Automatic annotation (TrEMBL):
TM region positions: none
Record's keyword terms, sorted: Methyltransferase, Transferase
Protein name, as recorded: Methyltransferase domain-containing protein
GO molecular function: methyltransferase activity
Species annotation: Spirosoma endophyticum
Any coiled-coil regions, as ranges: none
GO biological process, one term: methylation
Length: 271
C-alpha cells in the first residue's frame, strides 16, 4: 500500500477491532510514519451519528480553542474578515466566535447545525475566507491530500487540531486517539507526515508542540506561534488586542427577520 500523503510504501502495522465487530488493518508509512487504515468500508455505519457518544470533550474543546483562534486572528490576520469553521459539527464554535464579534460561518455536510442555523457557508454568497478552522477533522479524512485540496478552495490558511503520535510504536492500548470504538479516526499523523502534507501544497507549517497546527502561505515565527496559542499567553494577548463587539444582537435581528419572511411566504403559499 502507498502512503496517502508522501506516496512512500506503507507496511502492515497492526489490526484492531473497529466498532466492536470489524477486524481492520492499519498501515504505517516507512518514510513519514503516517498511519492509515485499509479502505474504510465501515464509515457509513460509523457516521450513523456524526458526533459520537465518546466525544464528551466537545464543549471543553470549544471553550479551550476560542481564545486560541482569537489570538491567532488578532496577531496575523484581518479580524474584520470572514471565516469558516470546516467540519463545524453542531455549529458551537461558529456561534461562540460570532458571539465574540468574529464573522464565522459553518461548513459541514454530515452533521446537523444546532447552534448556528442560517450561518452556514451555503446561506451566503461564496467567499474566500481569511482563515479556515478545522478542529478534530483531519483524523477523519479518508484521503488527506484530496480533502486538503478541497479545503484550500475556501482559504489558503488552515488552523486545525489533531493529536500527533506521541511515540514511534503507538497502539490502541498505549494511545487513546485510535478510538476504534467509533470507527471514525482513520488517519493518524506524525509530525513528519503533517510537514509532508504542508509541503505538497507549498504551505508553511506551524505547530505549538501540543495539538494546534497552522498551514498557511504566510511565514510565521514558530516560537511566537507557540506563545500565542498557549492558553495563558493567548488570554492576555486577547485582553490587550481584542476590540471586537459581539454579533449576538445583530444576529438575533437577522434570524428574527428571516423567520418573519419565512412565515410570510408560508402564509402566501397557503392562500
Amino acid at each position: 500500500m502507498k502512503c496517502k500523503i508522501c506516496l512512500s510504501n506503507s507496511a502492515y502495522y497492526l489490526s484492531v477491532e473497529v466498532l466492536g465487530k470489524y477486524n481492520i488493518k492499519y498501515y504505517k508509512c516507512s518514510t513519514c510514519q503516517f498511519i492509515q487504515t485499509e479502505d474504510p468500508y465501515w464509515l457509513s455505519e460509523a457516521y450513523a451519528n456524526a458526533i459520537t457518544k465518546l466525544d464528551i470533550g466537545l464543549i471543553t474543546r470549544n471553550e479551550f480553542i476560542v481564545p486560541v483562534v482569537k489570538a491567532v486572528i488578532n496577531k496575523w490576520f484581518n479580524p474584520d474578515a470572514q471565516f469558516i469553521d470546516y467540519g463545524g459539527g453542531y455549529g458551537m464554535l461558529v456561534r461562540m466566535m460570532r458571539d465574540r464579534g468574529y464573522n464565522f460561518y459553518r461548513q459541514d455536510i454530515y452533521c446537523d447545525n444546532l447552534y448556528a442555523q442560517l450561518f452556514d457557508v451555503t446561506d451566503v454568497p461564496p467567499f474566500t475566507a481569511e482563515l479556515l478552522t478545522a478542529f478534530e477533522v483531519f483524523e477523519h479524512l479518508v484521503d488527506p491530500v484530496v480533502e486538503l485540496e478541497k479545503i484550500l478552495t475556501f482559504s489558503d490558511t488552515v488552523l486545525f487540531s489533531t493529536t500527533v503520535q506521541p511515540t514511534k510504536d503507538v497502539s490502541p492500548e498505549s494511545w487513546w486517539y485510535f478510538t476504534p470504538e467509533t470507527g471514525q479516526h482513520i488517519s493518524l499523523y506524525s509530525r513528519a507526515s503533517l510537514q509532508a502534507l504542508a509541503d505538497r501544497f507549498s504551505l508553511n507549517y506551524n505547530w505549538n508542540d501540543q495539538n494546534v497546527h497552522l498551514f498557511s502561505k504566510k511565514k510565521i515565527n514558530n516560537r511566537l506561534f507557540k506563545a500565542i496559542t498557549h492558553p495563558r499567553w493567548g488570554h492576555w494577548y486577547n485582553k490587550i488586542m481584542d476590540k471586537h463587539q459581539t454579533l449576538l444582537e445583530k444576529d438575533f435581528s437577522f434570524v428574527q427577520n428571516r423567520l418573519k419572511e419565512s412565515f410570510l411566504l408560508g402564509n402566501l403559499s397557503n392562500k
